[in-house]
């Protein structure tokens, strides 16, 4: 997601000495107090260090502008479908074993907290009899995929980074898992993804059934950055791309009031 970080810099300067010294000292002060926002640092190396300090240290490349947290309201919007999928799973396998929900893209860990809170606040019959575990760790997702080291899970729920080719790579993975392992997915992405060529090739040509969950146009999702910077409201609409297996689409669901 995009957003520009801002910070405040000190503007206090020494006033004694000659005008020439004042100008020199003022120039030094201004250089030292440059805002440590993205793209405003004197050198690329220094900028990368500042961005890392802001976003936190990760075992994989990150983009400062990708660090926006999914709001709990967004999770609440897909909860009825997740509950429906869980009910179908329990019925299909005649089992009430533990269920793992996997979010491979780690920011601060808040996603797991909000997902757990969502299930706790909207207790359903499935929750009472099924232990739901959130798998969300600071790991290199793409390295895990290459090494076949991704965790066993039942449902994938994530808000992938919007920069670069993350959305495309995420789609490739979840569609493969849905086709071969019947693992449903819920991806919160910009609505324009549905018009992209890679979406047509990965999703439509594979005849994957997608359900779209959209917030009200008057009340779009608002996002928080860990540093409190950027814009809460995205310049484009974010919607849920929900991929369901054939066994999960032969019924209806109703949002809990």
Automatic annotation (TrEMBL):
SUPFAM superfamilies: S-adenosyl-L-methionine-dependent methyltransferases. Transmembrane segments: none annotated. Residues 20-30 have a biased composition (Basic residues). Residues 1-19 have a biased composition (Polar residues). It comes from the Eukaryota. GO terms for biological process: methylation. Residues 1-60 are annotated as: Disordered. One of its GO terms (molecular function) is methyltransferase activity. This is Uncharacterized protein.
């Amino acid at each position: 997601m995009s957003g520009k970080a801002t910070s405040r810099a000190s503007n206090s300067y020494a006033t004694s000495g000659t005008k020439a010294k004042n100008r020199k000292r003022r120039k030094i002060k201004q250089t030292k107090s440059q805002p440590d926002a993205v793209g405003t640092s004197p050198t690329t190396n220094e900028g990368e260090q500042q961005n890392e300090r802001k976003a936190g240290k990760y075992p994989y490349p990150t983009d400062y502008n990708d660090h926006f947290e999914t709001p709990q309201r967004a999770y609440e919007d897909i909860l009825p479908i997740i509950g429906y999928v869980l009910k179908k799973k329990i019925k299909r396998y005649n089992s009430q074993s533990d269920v793992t929900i996997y979010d491979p893209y780690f920011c601060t860990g808040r996603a797991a907290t909000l997902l757990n809170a969502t299930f706790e606040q909207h207790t359903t019959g499935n929750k009472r009899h099924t232990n739901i575990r959130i798998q969300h760790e600071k790991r290199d997702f793409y390295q895990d995929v290459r090494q076949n080291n991704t965790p066993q899970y039942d449902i994938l729920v994530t808000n992938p980074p919007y920069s670069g080719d993350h959305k495309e790579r995420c789609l490739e993975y979840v569609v493969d898992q849905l086709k071969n392992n019947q693992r449903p997915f819920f991806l919160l992405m910009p609505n324009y993804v549905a018009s992209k060529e890679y979406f047509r090739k990965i999703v439509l040509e594979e005849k994957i059934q997608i359900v779209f969950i959209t917030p009200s146009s008057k009340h779009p999702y608002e996002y928080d950055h860990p540093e409190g910077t950027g814009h809460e409201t995205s310049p484009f609409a974010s919607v849920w791309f929900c991929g369901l297996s054939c066994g999960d689409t032969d019924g209806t669901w109703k949002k809990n009031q």
